[in-house]
Q: What sequence folds into this?
């Protein structure tokens, strides 16, 4: 009987101590909080077509073309906007690859973030974050602009065409 009381008291003390310690630690210091959702994520929507940017067939493979679609479901249409003072990278939530333009006039593709052709200059970052139309110029490809071209996106000479304006729409819940 004494042994059982001692074990019960020890268990109660351990539970109280654990509760006191976990309530004293801020939530951001716990491993679970550190692994929380990495959002926010955005749809990159062409101002002319109203379609969202995504990898062809929701592919996770490097080198796959970027297309536009009316489909706004799933992680393949969600993009993380990674900005620095000098450039912006557009990272796909599904593939973890970045929007890339390697060839002038060529199809845009997804490639490993940081590889040549994945760094962009945004015409106006304040407008971008406000969800207003902006242009994305590729810093490593003679300032070619992201352009909607039918169902695909290409890197073409920046001429201010409506097909070269994109806006960010925040994905709800991210």
A:
């Amino acid at each position: 009987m004494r042994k059982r009381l001692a074990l019960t008291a020890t268990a109660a003390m351990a539970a109280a101590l654990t509760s006191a310690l976990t309530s004293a630690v801020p939530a951001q210091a716990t491993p679970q909080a550190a692994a929380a959702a990495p959002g926010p994520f955005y749809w990159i929507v062409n101002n002319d077509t109203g379609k969202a940017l995504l990898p062809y067939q929701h592919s996770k493979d490097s080198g796959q073309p970027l297309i536009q679609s009316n489909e706004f479901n799933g992680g393949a249409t969600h993009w993380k906007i990674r900005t620095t003072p000098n450039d912006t990278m557009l990272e796909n939530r599904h593939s973890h690859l970045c929007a890339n333009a390697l060839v002038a006039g060529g199809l845009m593709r997804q490639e490993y973030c940081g590889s040549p052709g994945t760094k962009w200059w945004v015409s106006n970052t304040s407008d971008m974050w406000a969800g207003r139309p902006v242009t994305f110029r590729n810093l490593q490809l003679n300032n070619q602009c992201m352009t909607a071209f039918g169902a695909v996106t290409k890197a073409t000479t920046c001429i201010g065409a409506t097909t070269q304006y994109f806006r960010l729409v925040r994905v709800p819940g991210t």
About this structure: The two ends are 54 Å apart (CA to CA).
